Amino acid sequence: MSWIGPYIVPLVLAALVLRRMIKTQKARPVRFWRLWLMPAIMVLVALGTLFSSFPGIVALLFFILAAGAGGALGWFRVHTLEFSTDPETGAVHTKGTPLSAVLFVGLFAARWGLKDLFHNTGLAAATSFVHWTDAGLMFTASLLAAQSAHTWVRARALLPPPVAQAVIPAEQKE
Known about the structure:
mainly alpha; single chain; three-stranded antiparallel beta sheet
């Protein structure tokens, strides 16, 4: 039994990734009211950690780079989704493509590769571990925010005109 111990966590993670890949291949309705919930929470947490103490100029530049990369990847990820409308209800649905599954797996592979690189080259010891985790938080927050924004833009374009007008906030109607 001790020979399987080191393989349990990778096997569980692989099973979860496989489940996620299968789940994204099914069409799901776009819930406009929930698009901003998780990104808003993540951005508030990321900003809270950033403003808790000044990390220094180099770390701040690294945070900006991580946020930019996350935003670009989040915006691109929405391009890998297929959007459709239900002709009867007018509801917008999204479905993952094989490219979106590959991108999802690629993110995990990049994370594991970077983790291995940092530990083998000593980069993790050169800077504070907190800065690396904060950069990951900035990356994730900007990825989710860009993904939600681009999903809203693409899904809103598919809505019928009266419904699209109801989704626009009141201050933008004028």
